[in-house]
Records
---
Amino acid sequence: MKLAAPTAEGAEVARGLRDSLNFAREPLAGLTHEERLALRDLLRRMLGESGSQGESEGVGEGA
């Protein structure tokens, strides 16, 4: 078994990213599942990523 551990800098970057995303937690929690899917798909289009429409992986699951 291999052990993966973040460097001190990596842990700081991850903490900063989590902290910067906290502002959206409440507004996003108010969206329906369908609204979260639509938002995800729109953001992917904006970034030029392809993703199949209606895919529910990772959207609102366990959040």
Note: Helices lie at 8-21, 25-29, 33-46.
---
Amino acid sequence: MKENIKKVGWVFLLCLLIGLDSCKSQQSVQIQEKPIAEEEKRPEWLVKRPIDIRYYVGIGASMKKKYPTNFADIARKHALHDLVSQIKVKISSESVFYQLDRGNNFKDEYLSNIQTSTIEELEDYELIGQWENEEEYWVYFRLSKQKYTERAALKRKQAESIALDFYKEAEDFYHKGEIHQAFSYYLKSIQTLEEYYGEAVTIDFEGKPILLINECFNRLHHILAHTGIYPEKSSFKLKKGTFKEVVASFSVLYKNPETQEILPFGRLPLILSFKNGKGQLSKDLQTNPQGKALLSIYSFDSEQYRNTVSIEMNSMAFAQGEKLSPFTERLLEFFPTVQSEIHFELTSPNIFLEAKETNLGKSMEVKPVTLAIKNALSAKGFVFTDKRNSADLLLKIEANTRKAGNKADFQTSYLDIDLKLVELKEGLTIYNKSLRDIKGVHLSYDEAGMVAYRKSTDVLKKELIPSLLRKLNP
């Protein structure tokens, strides 16, 4: 009996312990089950994109972490890009693009440009919704298709009216023979219609329909195709060292193919450049009202025999003067090039040499200074003549030594050199340089003078001869 009671006690105790443990387990599970905060519900326009045939829709987003200070602006920008991408721009087969041999790159550039300008000028769009959480920001715009179409039609009508006025002005100037003004107003007309380059802009002019953009483009092309640059003298023969400046005159003229009338193209900016050779040219050149201009060359920095200067219409400068947009400037690349050339043949002058070299007043049979200079010039192709009357230049060399004192048993002499270059036709001194106190030391003044002469060779090569050559190779 006692044993049974003991067994029952142990079983009861065991059950009690198991029950307590079970209760603890259930209690710990309940503690771990914490409610999870549900993310704010996204609006319907984010779940499913709105479709309404009456509106263009634009939805844009940005990440707050990436754009902490301007996430709203970024989302707005993306939404407007999304909206504008739905406004289709078609390229007409009658547009100016089909006159340009550039392929699809130009069209793509144009379409991108139109999209950017449309975003910048967009009006009447509505803010329909915004939504955000800790990480994202979203915005939803829409634009009435009817309002956009009405506003676009009004804008185009105004642009067409202004462009037509410019075209009429251009035609008047053209018939008056004022080519620069005509060219300018054709450009103004075409620029006014920049947004419509891909379209067929048909305008009634003098009772007839014309494609205005195409017509302006054709008129500009026509003017340049019949414009030429005509040098008064296309070739010059020059002798090195005999000039300070070369001036060449030329005219820019338009030849009317119908009337054969020749008209000046005034106030036309030009580009000057060396096609062969190199040198210093006049800058910022443009024709005067009579279509004339002067080209100045100040130096030729080349030993080439034949130098060529190219004269070309500066389309970009013309465009900047007319305040054209970068995109309209690109159209100028398709126009004919107005260009000409002037040739300059450089030959070496004949040089007559007068030299006097002494050592302490005594004439020297071998003239070291004269020999060094003559050899250097001859090596560069310069010609010396014994006849002064057939020479272009006179080169005068004077060199002399003088006593400068003694120290202990050594005597010191100084050598002085004077060199002068004279253009004989005008009698003008074009180069004048002196070297002083080239020092020589020896046991006698005479030998010290000869030491100074020998040292002068290095001084001449470093200082005098290079500057003389620069003058003889202008």
Note: The two ends are 140 Å apart (CA to CA).
---
Amino acid sequence: MNEAPDSAYEVGVVIGSYLPFIALVVIAYAIYHYNKKRRG
């Protein structure tokens, strides 16, 4: 773990750990926006 050249590896791990949550929020917002627009 301490052999990482710089913070790029740490940023990658953080993004990888948060990506599923972000994707879930984006999908939920897309469904909400779609339903809201469809109802008029």
Note: DSSP finds one helix and no strands in the chain.
